[in-house]
Amino acid sequence: MLRALSQRTSGLLKQAYPASQVFAAASPRIRRMAASDVQTGPSVISMINEDHRQFKLLWDEYNGPNMNGEMKQKLGWSLIRAIAMHSAAEEEVMYPEIRKRLGSEAADHLLGDDGHQAIKKLLFEANYMSVEKNGEAAYTAKLSEAMKVLYHHIEDEETRTWPHFESLPGVDADLLSHLGRKFDAAKHHAVTRPHPWAPNKPPLNVLANTMTAPLDGALDMWRFGGNPPRYY
Ligand SMILES: [Fe+2]
Ligand SMILES: [Fe+2]
């Protein structure tokens, strides 16, 4: 099903969102390539880290040569959308496991002002800015602020939290692939815009995401001219 979705959407993204196309089309395939995934299905951690890699590709593309204001605007919107979906899915699936197995302090650190909350606030501001209204420099500066926090948060997750989590008794390939399936499912009802004041812990975050996602989706249909990029 993921392959079919990727194939169906990659054509739509080809012209306007080159990095987004790579994200949508290649991500599930790359996920399947991990040797440890062959029998059990993709690990949630490999899926999350693949998302991180794609955020960095999008941001590199944003800062690359030959980018005009319109292209930066579209990439900025794509980044905001992808990061919002990723964060919502982590908060539904991964962080409750972190809370259960590593404790509240570890989960609250990832959710807090060094992590998701800071990123959401900055992307919320960026979401109400535009290249046309605020100028390319101001728009880029706001996104840069958000990406700086995001990069730090990604390092936190990948170099500290995930290795600790994977070393715990009871955390095996079956659990990681089970969480991977849940992570993918969560993307299907995830919000696509940052909501810093919405609940970020189960069960209220699941309810809030499910109720808010259709409105975000309608706004994104308008923003992306009827073809919003699909990040799952
Ligand atoms: Fe995160
Ligand atoms: Fe993450």
TrEMBL record:
Parts forming coiled coils: none
Per the UniProt record, one Pfam family is Hemerythrin
InterPro entries, per the entry:
Hemerythrin-like
Stretches assigned to the Hemerythrin-like domain: 45-159
**Protein name, as recorded:** Hemerythrin-like domain-containing protein
Lineage here is: Eukaryota, Viridiplantae, Chlorophyta, core chlorophytes, Chlorophyceae
